[in-house]
Amino acid sequence: MAKYSNPFRALRNKNYLLFWSTQSISLIGTWIDTTLRGWVGVNVLPENKAAGFIGLIAFLKGFPTVFLSPVSGVLIDWFGPREVLFLTQVADTINACVMAFLVYKNILTPAQLLILSVLMGISGAFYLPSRNTFISSVVPKDYLPNALALHALIFNLARMIGPSIAGFVVKYYGLSFGFILNAISFVPLLIVLPTIPTNYQRNLSKERAFFKDLSEGLKIVVKDKRILSTFISLTVYAVFGMPYSMLMQAFAKSAMRTGLVGYGLVMGSMGLGAFVGAILAGGMDSKKVIQINEEFLILAIGTSTFVTSVYPNAAIFTSFVNGLCQTVFFNVTNSRTQLLSPMHAKGRVMSLYALINNGGSPVGTFVFGLLGNVIGIRASYQILALALIAYFVIHKFLIKQPETESTY
Question: Which residue numbers delimit the Major facilitator superfamily (MFS) profile domain (predicted)?
């Protein structure tokens, strides 16, 4: 058991260490970019139109995932996750360079910003499944949950560091320099990525058929009861769990009666919880990870969300619980999906995982955001919480759970 206690053990793999370290740099640049694009979006239109415009940008960045994630899975299985991942990073580098140029010349228009957001959404639809599949093709299966947890760790660190750097850059060097920094942050990864060997078994058949291969991925998910159960849990959490953080700005303003500082403290607490969750998930044995009952994590999130709705000022504490449980939840469901998926179709299965993960959250946020306008944001949070708790009851006591057997 001792060899599984080190939460950084995946870094013993030199190839993963190369990817992890260069990806860390890239993620910081990405969060600098995300922060600055939001700032540009707020200022490119009059104040009375800015909020709707920001919502439109978020939608345009998210909707390509719904259509293109299944496509990405087929291409990953045809050409390999490393090759697809490399192209997504090239596309994002070019996007950042274009943003830097348009901002520097002061010629950026709302239409151009929307187009660049769509292009980011397209590359993002290919990024998540190719990245996850690439990681599983680099590290041994016993290291996979730890490697995914370490990626969550650097993601949350970048989420805390990136916006701070962005503020410093804007103050002393200007907006355009921030986008240049993001473009530069991709360079180490683009240099290292092609040199990392993988063990991915690509589909080299001369009789490739796109729709046939796509349907095969769907059949694998439907026939494997454990993967199907995992996807149902993921869907429930994406629709009813993710809106907690997505709607927190509105909750902080109307329910907590606080401003940007209070909102920042709540999200900082959630980020700290996610950081702790990544450390905890990283110390788990791979066999134990795929056997964890994720419905208990959903119950904890539902309970903390309900407490938040009743006692709004408790959000500073409950957000820590949500962040911790969310990170462990994604580590469990991601690891199980990859470890149970057949190697030849892993890209297609993971693309469906990405589809649910990235597609469910905007739907839930949109629906319960509108509902919050009608019945109040606290009542909307209560419905979210009760839905999660109800799923726990149904999943735990009314549905017989399939056994977990790895076919990795």
Answer: 1-403
